[in-house]
Amino acid sequence: MALLRRFTAALVALKQFEEYVLAGLFFVVGCYAYIDARSWGFAAGTWPRLTSGVVIVLSALVLLQDVLPRSIRSLISDGDTMFSRRQKEAVGDDTPSTDHDEPADADDEPISPAVTTALFTVGFAVLGYLVGFLWATPAFVLAYGYWNRIDWSKSAVLAIVGFAIAYGFSLVLGVPIHEGVLTEGIVP
């Protein structure tokens, strides 16, 4: 129990660096995915290389936001993108919210949402490595839905959709994402 308290205290201390922790994690995962996708051949590796390239560039922008020009930095740091500006203009800022299912303010949470997302991402990667990403996808969706207090029926539907997308990805590209270290050779 004391170890869990220390771990939680360490995560709370990371709250001020949450953008950098998450961006650094995505940068490392993107680099790994880009390098690993080179061994898959041209057809199967094109989509992973493109998406990981986008992740690398965007996470590098977040990591380097302090040295970027002010016009680009404002798009990254204050969360005001051209899409959110258009949405604010279309809806108007004075529209009251009628959604009562919104989660509590992020400042009220002991662990920041960025650190939580980073932990779930690492957990998904480890579980995918162990049992295969095809099987880890629905487990990840269910766990993330539970953490965010999403209704079980909605989480189950999202888990089924995630499994179907992962299965389709596996069929179309012929990538063996159903195998992990522990399930290699067990699952046909």
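Above is the first protein from milestone M3; the second protein from the same milestone is given next.
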Amino acid sequence: MSSTVQPENVVTFPAIKPGHRLVPAKVGRTNDTSVIAYVECPLFCIEDHVDEPVRNIEDIVHRGDTASLLVPTFGYGAYPIQMHASVENDPVAADPQYRAAYISVQDAGGSGSHLTPEMAERLADEAVKFASQLRSQARTARLHNKHAVEVAA
């Protein structure tokens, strides 16, 4: 039985973690001095790590699709209240909760919260309850307005 000998000038790559893919990332201080490095990127990540270069490879953060809630108004401003949520992770963060996938919820100004999956599920339950209450308030306002028009007529 013969054994295969690995040539000395060939480096084998470690296996890519499940749920990840290998993608290019632009890293460097300027475009002239940047290099392309290949990093493991979670399957949920939609970031283009070449179009969004970072100064240091440890600055790479992974982000998924954004879910948005835009609250319109008939007053001033088109959408004065906005909420945006996305799955994120920072693979080299000191805090293990940021190394794991988490949900980032932010307003239009950038203020926000970071949620574990369990926290996000509880928030989603609260949002469903809020939506039901909002629908009830819309019915109440509609009935009040209809009654006000009938009385005025």
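Note on the second protein: The helical segments are 96-99, 117-152.
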